[in-house]
Write a structure and sequence with these properties.
By secondary structure, the protein is of the alpha/beta class. Helix content is 40%, strand content 15%.
């Protein structure tokens, strides 16, 4: 049989990492158990000291969760992974497991609001300083480096304005400084961007988004080389307990089976919607990584294989116009989630980024007129009609 590492992504996402029980079930088994039993005390001792590689406790590892981790490794090209209870658990754990008091991190300013909170508020409480930089400005990354810099952190495309950061260039800066680069790849997905191949050391996902993709479960995953995951990350993960539940892992496995079809369809629709919005007079700014007029179009073409399922745009008239537009939509729903089968729209300044100081939001281009549209699986023509109707309402 062909080695699973030689399969194309769509095949890996259906069959990769599957381990069957004695019943030879078709679908992956759901092991809802917190612990495991041993035939004798000697076996328990061997399991705990690592002589027997079996499972010990579902907070450390679980058969269903392990299948999800293995499948994500095959998709991402990673040596090992650990699944977490949420995307923020993945981000926070990846950062905390990489630093200690007295260390320093450099992070891009354009981050999801909770990620900024971890970098700017949580880490300093434990003696880890953070410097925030313009992610697109490589000189700022270089200037921020200190002798104690241990981690660089970014997301690309960014949330919510879809800015693109040159991952390979930042990876070179990080490695020259002796630091590790952590990349949040949620907006691109592993289908359109491969941060590890571009030089990143750690990749994190909110599996809640495209991986589940149907609004059902929370989840996250951290991927890297096997040595770092096993020696550095796993002890932190094992003892602090951010692990994913077996049920959520089973749901994520089902989501991965349809990921390529969903992402391709959503990206195609997002491209059509972006082109439509770019020509509308009510739209003063349109940002989509798949268009040549994107501010970092050259970098996007270099490191991404597709646009995105998300579109960012700004309406003339600020918050009032943005609210009127959202309230006039009939198919697209107002929600702060993304990557869902249902099209969702979000007003970042009052939701996902409301905790970010206003001056910082404006510096990032997140003003009252900015909206983030996550394109779903509905008919693209119906979505365009819905958007056109809402634009007329403002």
């Amino acid at each position: 049989m062909t080695n699973d590492k030689d399969w194309h992504p769509a095949t890996r996402l259906v069959h990769g990492g599957t381990t069957r029980s004695a019943f030879n079930e078709t679908s992956e088994a759901l092991f809802l158990t917190q612990g495991f039993v041993y035939p004798d005390a000697e076996s328990a001792e061997a399991r705990f000291n690592g002589e027997d590689p079996g499972f010990v406790y579902s907070r450390y590892a679980n058969p269903t969760v392990s299948m999800f981790e293995e499948r994500m490794c095959l998709l991402e090209g990673a040596g090992a992974a650990r699944a977490t209870a949420s995307g923020m658990a993945a981000v926070t754990s990846a950062l905390l497991a990489s630093v200690k008091a007295g260390d320093h991190i450099v992070a891009a300013k354009a981050l999801f609001g909770s990620c900024r909170y971890v970098a700017e508020t949580v880490l300093p409480r434990f003696g880890v300083e953070a410097t925030m930089v313009d992610g697109a400005n490589l000189d700022e990354w270089k200037a921020a480096v200190r002798p104690n810099t241990r981690v660089m952190f970014l997301e690309s495309p960014t949330n919510p304005t879809l800015d693109i950061v040159d991952i390979a260039a930042v990876a070179d800066i990080a490695h020259e400084a002796g630091a590790r680069l952590v990349v949040d790849n949620v907006f691109a997905t592993a289908l359109w961007q491969s941060p590890l191949a571009l030089g990143a050391d750690v990749v994190v996902y909110s599996a809640t988004k495209h991986i589940d993709g149907q609004g059902r479960c929370l989840g996250g995953v951290v991927l890297s080389d096997e040595e770092w995951i096993e020696k550095e990350f796993h002890p932190f993960y094992k003892h602090t307990g951010p692990s994913m539940s077996p049920f959520n892992a089973w749901v994520m496995l089902k989501g991965l089976e349809t990921l390529p079809m969903r992402i391709e369809r959503q990206t195609q629709s997002a491209g059509r919607i972006a082109d439509f919005l770019a020509e509308n007079k009510a739209v003063t700014r349109l940002i989509y990584p798949g268009r040549d007029d994107h501010p970092q179009a050259a970098v996007a073409k270099k490191q991404m294989r597709g646009g995105s399922t998300l579109v960012a745009f700004e309406l003339a008239g600020g918050k009032e116009a943005a609210f009127r537009f959202c309230n006039a939509l009939e198919i697209v729903r107002i929600s702060n989630n993304l990557g869902d089968a249902k099209s969702l729209i979000c007003h970042p300044a009052t939701t996902t980024h409301q905790s970010v100081p206003e001056t910082d939001r404006l510096e990032l281009g997140i003003n009252g007129g900015v909206l983030r549209l996550s394109v779903g699986l509905e008919d693209a023509g119906d979505l365009l009609n819905d958007i056109e109707h809402a634009l007329a309402a403002i």
